[in-house]
Automatic annotation (TrEMBL), chain A:
Biological source species: Rhizobium glycinendophyticum
A Pfam family: OpuAC
Keywords, sorted A to Z: Signal
Protein name per Swiss-Prot or TrEMBL: ABC transporter substrate-binding protein
InterPro entries: ABC_Gly_betaine_transp_sub-bd
Molecular function via GO: transmembrane transporter activity
Residues covered by the ABC-type glycine betaine transport system substrate-binding domain: 28-310
Signal sequence interval, chain numbering: 1-23
CDD domains hit by this protein: PBP2_HisX_like
A GO cellular-component term linked to this record: ATP-binding cassette (ABC) transporter complex
Automatic annotation (TrEMBL), chain B:
Record membrane topology: Multi-pass membrane protein
All residue ranges annotated as the ABC transmembrane type-1 domain in the record: 109-288
InterPro entries assigned: MetI-like, MetI-like_sf
Keyword Metal-binding belongs to the record: no
Lineage: Bacteria, Pseudomonadati, Pseudomonadota, Alphaproteobacteria, Hyphomicrobiales
Any one of the GO BP annotations: choline transport
Pfam families from the UniProt entry: BPD_transp_1
Electron transport listed as a keyword: no
Protein name: Proline/glycine betaine ABC transporter permease
GO terms for cellular component: ATP-binding cassette (ABC) transporter complex
GO molecular function, one term: amine transmembrane transporter activity
Transmembrane segments: 63-82, 89-106, 112-135, 156-183, 236-254, 266-284
Length: 332, 304
């Protein structure tokens, strides 16, 4: 009887030890797959590396900047947002970091995110005089509005995104309305992309907000216009980024900080992978190439991630320990 | 359990033999490219065709938005009263519209009303003839029914993208997307209503020597009207539901606010706009139902 009891206890001890060892390795991890291409690829790169390199069980959940942030902040789910444009929620994120709910890891895009007003390259080539936003606003006839071709259009960013506010304020600051332009709401990322695709397929002009790195910019050549001024951070934070600011001034977009954000829960259960999410970053040129390849080959985000891992080992092997890199390579 | 089973079976039986990736990619590319070249080739033609609709939509929207609110409200009250002859529904209309105005959504509601009005009218104009055609021919019915099934189950996001590629963004593609979504019940219920007309009534009409055209106009359609009204009612409801989704391609109004509220977690704004849509829906629904009921008076006559 005693022996049996001892054996049972021993077995239970072994069991518990084994259990804790497994927990130290990695657990169930959920990654937010944001609804734009570069973030989608990043999510799958993380998925492949965490699964094959660190032995995590990864689920990918669809997300979008604001809802994902709210969910991570309130519920601690999903665990990782690989490509998070932090400017949109700076204050709330700082608070969450201070209170230890969220952790800001690596700056995923080493160049940061580039935002601005763009025009198609074919328009820029035809009209070399258009160098700045002011120049473009002299020609409403080149950028016909979708609903009223007699007016020009400044195409706004999707509803509810932060850039919707800044674009509207810049539109006001530039006096674009009196220059015969209207501000066109696109509603969603799909609407914005569609309006660009529609303009290019019909060889029509297009002027509006867009950002890099993106598949659209890999696919359709666009030129970013200068605002003719430098970025004034104080005024940007006090007015340009504030809804209904009474007298906005012309300002240039800041280079956006793009970080990986993880929850405290992730740091606890997947400690082994923390070094990875704290070191990995890539540059816009590489992302642009991967996205262009995806466009070219009609690849999904997962295909894009595999393509990246197969094509740029010299980049990603520096993010992980050699033995982890071997595991990932074996899995490919 | 199932996974261990796979260790003893040939791979073909465990993993579905999917078509080769490269071939699938080729197919996807070909379809996409041919669609794009279609857009390139016919872009101007399509623009020219949709211009009248665009002007009509712009005109109606500015009419709704720029008319003083009390006139719009008076017209709505008159329409509701003459359609329903029911003071309770009129009271609901007034209260609902006042609520919308008080929370500052009047203008957005007018934009949404303009889109829904045009979409519903289009759906009726397209739906009723197709419904009649289906009712008169079994072959037509067997062709159209599967198409309607696809229209009702295909996720709306799937056709939003090509619609944007072809028509750009704004009200026209929005209306087209809404009509695709809202027309099936109109067609189905028109077809059903005509098919359900009593055989004996038709025999009587035959006995009096009616031509097929007379039978349709003077017997079948009047008797099918209550069902057709139910179809119109459903179409209005589905248009209202789709208006929110259509805001994803640049349609303004209440849907845009809902979308913005969703992406920013503005609970109150989302609910206010949602309730404004509900208020319009209730007004439309009760009015069209009451009208449909009044058309059915003849069925309530008790023969002594």
């Amino acid at each position: 009887m005693k022996k049996l009891l001892a054996a049972t206890l021993f077995a239970a001890g072994i069991y518990a030890a084994a259990g804790s060892a497994q927990a130290a390795e990695c657990g169930d991890v959920s990654i937010a797959e944001m609804n734009w291409a570069s973030a989608g690829v990043a999510a799958y790169v993380d998925k492949i590396i965490l699964e094959s390199g660190y032995g995590c069980t990864v689920t990918v959940v669809t997300g979008d900047t604001m809802p994902t942030f709210a969910s991570m902040n309130e519920k601690g789910q999903p665990d990782i947002a690989p490509e998070f444009w932090v400017n949109a929620v700076r204050t709330a994120l700082d608070q969450a970091i201070a209170e230890g709910r969220l952790i800001q890891a690596a700056p995923l895009l080493s160049d940061g995110g580039v935002e601005g007003w763009w025009i198609p390259k074919f328009i820029a080539d035809e009209h070399p005089d258009i160098k700045t936003v002011e120049d473009a606003l002299k020609h409403p006839e080149l950028f016909p509005a979708p609903e009223d071709p007699s007016k020009g259009a400044v195409t706004n960013c999707p509803s509810g995104w932060n850039c919707q506010v800044s674009t509207a304020n810049l539109y006001k600051a530039l006096g674009a309305k009196d220059k015969g332009f209207e501000l066109v709401d696109t509603g969603s990322a799909a609407g914005l992309d569609g309006s660009i695709a529609n303009a290019f397929e019909n060889k029509k002009g297009w002027l509006g907000y867009y950002w890099a790195p993106t598949a659209i910019l890999g696919k359709y050549e666009m030129v970013k216009l200068s605002f003719g001024v430098d970025h004034d951070k104080a005024n940007w934070d006090a007015c340009t980024a504030v809804p209904d600011c009474p007298d906005p001034k012309v300002n240039a977009y800041p280079v956006s900080d793009v970080y990986t954000v993880v929850t405290k829960g992730f740091a606890e259960k997947a400690g082994v992978a923390m070094d990875y999410v704290k070191t990995r970053k890539w540059d816009n040129a590489t992302v642009g190439k991967v996205l262009a390849w995806m466009e070219e080959n009609q690849g999904t985000n997962e295909d894009g991630a595999k393509h990246f891992l197969e094509t740029y080992p010299e980049m990603w092997t520096t993010w992980v320990a050699p033995e982890v890199a071997e595991k990932v390579k074996a899995a490919l | 359990m199932a996974s261990t089973l796979c260790n003893y079976l040939p791979e073909l039986l465990c993993k579905f033999p999917a078509i080769d990736q490269t071939l699938m990619r080729g197919v996807r590319k070909t379809v996409d490219d041919s669609f794009k070249s279609f857009v390139r080739a016919y872009g101007n033609v399509i623009d020219a065709l949709t211009t009248p609709l665009q002007h009509f939509l712009n005109g109606l929207e500015s009419l709704f938005v720029n008319t003083p609110w009390f006139i719009i409200l008076a017209v709505m009250v008159l329409v509701v009263y003459f359609a329903s002859r029911n003071m309770r529904i009129v009271a609901v209309t007034v209260i609902g519209m006042l609520f919308i105005g008080l929370v500052g959504l009047w203008e957005d509601t007018m934009i949404t009303l303009a889109i829904v009005t045009v979409s519903t009218l289009l759906a009726i104009v397209i739906g009723i003839p197709i419904g009649i055609l289906m009712a008169r021919s079994d072959r037509a019915q067997s062709v159209v029914n599967p198409i309607l099934d696809v229209m009702q189950t295909l996720p709306s996001f799937v056709y939003l993208i090509p619609v944007v590629m072809i028509f750009g963004i704004g009200k026209v593609p929005g209306v087209i997307a809404v009509v695709i979504y809202a027309v099936p019940p109109m067609i189905r219920l028109t077809n059903l209503g005509i098919r359900l007309v009593d055989r004996e009534v038709l025999e009587a009409a035959d006995a009096f020597g009616s031509s097929p055209g007379q039978k349709l106009m003077n017997v079948q359609i009047p008797l099918a009207l209550p069902t057709v009204m139910a179809g119109i009612n459903q179409t209005i409801m589905m248009s209202l539901a789709m208006v929110v989704v259509a805001s994803m391609i640049g349609v303004g109004g209440l849907g845009k606010n809902v979308l913005q509220a969703i992406s920013n977690q503005f609970l109150t704004i989302g609910f206010l706009n949602g309730f404004a849509l509900v208020a319009i829906a209730i007004i439309f629904d009760r009015t069209s139902q009451a009208y449909g009921k009044r058309l059915q008076r003849h069925t309530e006559v008790v023969h002594g």
